[in-house]
Amino acid sequence: MAALFVLASFISLAAASSAFENFVVQESRQSAPDAFAHLGPAAGDSMINLRIALPSQNVSGLEADLLDVSDPKSANYGNHLSKDEANAFLAPTTHAVSAVQGWLASKGLVGKISGAGNWISVAVNTSTANEMLAAEYQTFRHIASGRTYQRTLSYSLPSELANVVDIIHPTVVFDPPATGRPVLSAPRSRPRATPPASCAITITPFLACIQSLYNIPTTKSSFSNIAVSDLKTFLQLFRPDISSSTSFTVQTLDGGSNPQGTGEAGIEANLDIQYTVGLATGVPVVFVSVGENNQDGDLDGFLDLINFLNSETSVPGVLTVSYGFAGENAISNALAMQFCNACMALTARGTTIIFASGDAQACTTFIPAFPAGCPFITVVGSVGGVSPETGSSFSSGGFSNFFPSPSYQTASVQSFLQAQGSKNAGLFNPLGRAFPDVAAQGEDIEIVVGGATGLVAGTSASAPIFASVIALINSQRIAEGKAPLGFLNPLLYANPGMFNDITTGSNPGCGTSGFSARVGWDAVTGLGTPNFVTFVAALT
Ligand SMILES: *[C@@H]1O[C@H](CO)[C@@H](O)[C@H](O)[C@H]1NC(C)=O
Ligand SMILES: *[C@@H]1O[C@H](CO)[C@@H](O)[C@H](O)[C@H]1NC(C)=O
Questions:
Q1: Which residues contact 532 (CB under 8 A, 6 or more apart)?
Q2: Which of 289, 361, 285, 340 is nearest to 317 (CA)?
Q3: Any signal peptide, and if so, which residues (predicted)?
Q4: Could you tell me which residues are beta bridge partners of residue 250?
Q5: pTM of this prediction?
Q6: How many angstroms separate the CA atoms of 1 and 410, rounded?
Q7: Ligand 1 pocket: which of 47, 48, 124, 127 to mutate (most atoms within 8 A of CB)
């Protein structure tokens, strides 16, 4: 016994003296993407928040449990996982956590644990980051937006850590600025098409038009909160039946701010808030404002948002996000998986996660949007017009190159592929996770910004509209003592009849005519637009 003990001590001493010295390259790339210009070495004193992802212990177990509680035919339908149950699947081993914390401690640093315990973050200057990761952080400018980024073309880890760290971000992934920010245009001067009658008149009854199109109830339930001027004007104009002091709460992350500006972020925030508070009558809305004026990029905001929610005790019934990334290929596969796994844990706890599908098709071959390919979120495309509703030309749809087709959609997508024959063959991955899942109005959407009415278009309008329908259904279910819907997709694909099937429109791009809307699921409008009444009927 004693001898063994001595030997063990000797080994650990030997290890300690040479600890963290043999570096192994973790990830590298030849050069920055063409969309970025190299400006020179990053200033040594500029800060970077390194987010270290540790390997999860049981991702497939989480997926199996999620599919069980989300399958309407399962006895466990709606039995959402607790925080501890969900996070236990994604947690890393205690050995991995102590190895990473030990390494950070050897640099005088303490990592902050977030997410399901599988992310450890630490803020350091780039000079320290270069030393810790045998990296060379440089400053790059994203040419189109002018935004600067700090990235390295390669990073290494001490050999002891090679198997206990999955990835570190931001390092070699050049995530472009998120897209989906709507551009404000002048108010409508032409009348809306008929019917329904409520859609026929200009401007004022637009929310009523959407309520009528999708059979959304307008029943009031009172609650009050902070008042916001633009929201007040919007509600006075479009929902005179509900109190214009109805508001929402703001949660800030990463130095985010209360989004009251009239700039780009202000338009997006106004759109999201006006079409959730305005449609989901009485449902408390929390606006999570994620800071974006840092050199870490927008992907960090997404990661921090999901990781923040996963570490909260109670989670929202619906999370709707109108931003996305135009090209899945700009994100590494490993980072995409980490993000999608975090979404899986959140939706397993009963949060429906909704993302806009995106407003453009990237080219060469079709490059799918991100995170639309993640199978655990519900992706919303766009339609315009009312009689009939028609798939919007900008409604991004397609097939992931990272995520395989999940079983819940395979039959629906196969029917679509058979129907369209050889169209666009070779330009997309027919075995990939296909999107969007659903669609909602996204053209000529009226919002109020800075007291003035304007129009926006984009799937970023469709996402909050669809989210509001789900929030109202959740409200009704909770009033009946039922669980919120949580992960929707298995339910949706098993009940296509609850949607208004959209069969006209297409999303041309990349010099092709794109995909066409068809009977059944299609890569422009998914299963179609929601109908509150048939949705509720299908649930009972
Ligand atoms: C970076 O941070 C370290 C640790 O706080 C500090 O000692 C060092 O002076 C900093 N380097 C620069 C260039 O600011
Ligand atoms: C992973 O989770 C599944 C589902 O709960 C469970 O059956 C399996 O034993 C777990 N595997 C490991 C290695 O913990």
A1: 214, 215, 216, 217, 469, 472, 473
A2: 285
A3: 1-16
A4: 287
A5: 0.88
A6: 59
A7: 127
Task: State residue 21's pLDDT score.
Answer: 77
Q: For residue 375, what are its two tokens?
A: 């199978």
Q: Token digits for 363?
A: 């080219």
Residue 312 CA neighbour count, 13 Å, CB half: 14
Structural tokens at position 15? 């290890």
Q: Which residues of 242-279 are buried (b: 16+ CB within 10 A; e: fewer)?
A: bebebbbebeeebebeebbeeeebbbbbbbbbbbbbbb
Q: Where does residue 202 fall: left (phi above 0), alpha (psi -120 to 50 degrees), or beta otherwise?
A: beta
Closest CA to 406 of 304, 506, 489, 291: 489
Beta strand ranges found along 340-472 (DSSP E): 352-356, 378-384, 390-391, 398-404, 432-435, 438-441, 445-449, 452-456
Q: Quick check: 36 and 149 in contact, CB under 8 A?
A: yes
The answer to whether the CB of 447 falls within 8 A of the CB of 453 is: yes
Checking DSSP bridges between strand 378-384 and strand 352-356, what pairing results, if any?
A: parallel
DSSP assignment string, 258-310: ----SSHHHHHHHHHHHHHHTTSTT---EEEEE---STT-SHHHHHHHHHHHH
Is 501 annotated for ligand binding? yes
Q: Please count the other Cβ atoms lying within 10 Å of the Cβ belonging to residue 297.
A: 24
Distance of CA 426 to the CA centre of its chain: 27
Q: How far is CA 175 from CA 9, 299, 425, in A?
A: 45, 7, 28
Question: Which amino acid residue places its CA nearest to atom 1 of ligand 1?
Answer: 125
The pair of three-digit structure tokens given for residue 113, joined into one six-digit string: 């644990």
Beta bridge partners of 452: 449
Q: Is 509 helix (H, G, I), strand (E, B) or coil?
A: strand
Locate 352 and state its tokens: 């429906």
308 CA from centroid of ligand 2 (Å): 25
Pocket mutation for ligand 2, best pick of 56, 57, 58 (most atoms within 8 Å of C-beta): 58
Q: For residue 414, count other CB atoms closer than 10 A to its CB.
A: 14
Phi/psi for 454 (5° steps) reads -145, 175
Quick one: which H or E segment has residue 413? helix 407-420
At residue 210, the pLDDT reads 85
- Going from the Cα of 61 to the center of ligand 2, the distance in angstroms, rounded, reads 5
